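Agenda item 2: zinc ion complex prediction
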Amino acid sequence: MEHWQLYKEFRFEAAHQLPHHDGKCARLHGHSWVCRVYIRGDRLTASGAKQGMLMDFGDLKKYMQPLLDEYLDHYYLNETLGLESPTSEAIAQWIYEQLAAMNLPGLDAVEIRETCTSGCIYRRI
Ligand SMILES: [Zn+2]
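Presented output:
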């Protein structure tokens, strides 16, 4: 059995606040967030314009762009995501659920990085 895992990376700037945190994350602050959406599958497109592809990166972007434009980029995530405490874990899950609701084919996982060294991957098993 073989399979491919494909990803596309998206970046956005946004503020958040973790009200229950016992450190500096309780204060309003921002990050340059990085989001990777992972797709997996075991069959590539056999013919046509997308021959040899699991998914066209451009098609993947079409799913993410509305989320970036309406909820993520340059927003206050506590408000736009409706999350009291938008941790990396909660944001990754929120994005995954939105993409799942849009029936993104082959959705495997969503990764969120809030700094160069810290992040989280959410998937459903
Ligand atoms: Zn933070």
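Discussion summary: Residues 16, 25, 29, 31, 114 surround zinc ion (CB under 6 Å).
Owner for follow-up: CH.
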